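sorry for the late reply, my laptop died twice this morning and i had to redo everyting from scratch. anyway the thing you sent over, i finally got around to it. pasting the sequence first so we're on the same page, its 418 residues, then the predicted structure underneath. double check i copied it right bc i was rushing
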Amino acid sequence: MAKLQAIRGMHDILMQDTHRWQFTEKTIAHVLKQFGYQEIRLPIVEYTDLFTRSIGDHTDIVTKEMYCFDDRNESSLTLRPEGTAGCVRAGIEHGLFYNQTQRLWYQGPMFRHERPQKGRQRQFHQIGVEAFGFNGPDVDAEMILMCAHLWQLFGIKLELEINSLGTTESRNNYRKQLVNYFSKHRNALDKESLIRLENNPLRILDSKNPDLQSVIQSAPMLSDYLDEESALHFEELCGVLDSAGIDYKVNPRLVRGLDYYGKTVFEWITSELGAQGTVCAGGRYDGLVELHGARPTPAVGFAIGMERLIELINEDIIDNHQAPHIYLIIASETGMQAGLLLADKLRKSNPDLRVMTHLGAGSIKSQFKKADKSGAKYALILGDEEINNNSISVKDLRGDQPQQSMNYPELENFLDKI
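ok and here's the structure:
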């Protein structure tokens, strides 16, 4: 029989790690609520056409990375490689954008068939944040400020890079200049860049091939072809960031890998994760809603790579309150029912109290070993004597307090102070 194991690039998150995820997700959700964003929950499978139209036929995601399959109705379906397209589809389908603004967020797994490495998996997790119906640079700035607030809470330092891609018209003018420039340097381009030259020349600027960097650095600058509206939008955004004391670098080669971006794009990056240094990225996609047949709706968003973010957060700041407060030892052959009822009563009277009841047979000695291993602060011992006297024995597992007997009112008063 073949070894039973997970699919390559798709990993289990085990119980010793889930507290890191829960802490991170809870913190982000709290900040998003502070900023007025509401959670939306989206399917992980959509019609393939949604992604090919949104992301672009010639992007790496569509041509190389999507998990596509035909269902029994012979419809082509795809495991979502990113969240924005599905969020736009949901907004159009349910009329969320009609004469109203929306601030939305979502979380969950995404899927891309890439070569697995640290910080890049085939099933990975994102929290995505999207705002619809806001035209000005104020929402772009607010999103960046929101991110900066999160990094401060998590005690991490990320570098911010920003750029403007302009409108579709200005990008098309720039595209012609790029094609003309890189065509004169075809001999210097690698195989992937030659393909991009035909389909998406702006993506050549994003190449990590060190042999191409001198050619890329000498390429025409998008800022020289930026339309007046986009230039003013970007100038106002930078003004807000300057006033807020946000450090940033204008990177004229920052283009992002998805076709729907225009005007503002940004990335928060780190050097601590090797090649996969982008922790959070996003930008404006003002034409995407209209592309799918709805009324023109300005939009901007970003996504946080959860695996990468969690890797950066120091364990010292994480709230790891998973161990039980109380481990209930059953020291009576007939005490199982009384123990379960007592534990249930304690949880109901104190909802924040974590009570683990010993289940299954075992000697008192073995139960104490399990109580100690659980990390509980106290053991409650329920034996025949305690059952007959309507009392409970309390043993301090982490200190040197002597074991003591309490009646139930005394126990509840004691537990309230834990």
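The chain has a mean pLDDT of 92.
thats about all i looked at so far, will dig more tmrw
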